[in-house]
Amino acid sequence: MNKFYTTYTSPLGVMTLQADDDGMLGAWFETQTTQPVTLGQYTESNLILMRTIKQLDEYFAGQRTEFDLPLAAKGTSFQMQVWQALTSIPHGQTWSYQDLANAIGNPKAVRAVGLANGKNPISIIVPCHRVIGKNGKLTGYAGGVERKAKLLELEKTR
Fold first, then answer.
1. What are the Methylated-DNA-[protein]-cysteine S-methyltransferase DNA binding domain coordinates in residue numbering (predicted)?
2. pLDDT digit string (tens) for 81-90?
3. What residues are annotated to the active site?
4. Phi, psi of 41 (to 5 degrees)
C-alpha cells in the first residue's frame, strides 16, 4: 500500500497530513510526538490529501463543521472503536472521557478510552480535542493543550 504525505500550514501551526490509497492515515501538528517513523512519498497531488487541505481550510474559515473524508487510521480494534465514537461528538460540544466510554458501551474503560484518545492519529478531523475532564477542565492533547483550547474556542464561536 502506497503512503503519501504533505504539509499544511494551519492557523495553529504546520501540520503533516498522511494518506494511503484508502484514506487519511494521520494529521499531526509539527510538535506532536505521535507521528509515524515513515511518512511515505511527499506529494502535493494526492486527491485525498488535496480534499483534506480544502476541508481544513473551510474548517478554519468557519465554513465547515464536519469532515467528509475517507479515514484509514491504523490501530487496535479498541482504539478504532474509540476513534469512531470521537467522530460523533458534535461540533462546538465537548464530552468527558466518561461520556466517551459510555458511548462505546464500556463505562468502566475510562482510562483505556483516555489512552486510545491520546493515540488518535488524525487530529482535528477525528476530534479528540473535544474530550475534556469530567470536571470540565482541559486535559492533555498531543498537539498541545494551548491548541486544544484554541480549537474549542474556534468551534464555540460558530
1. 77-156
2. 999 999 999 9
3. 128
4. -90, 130
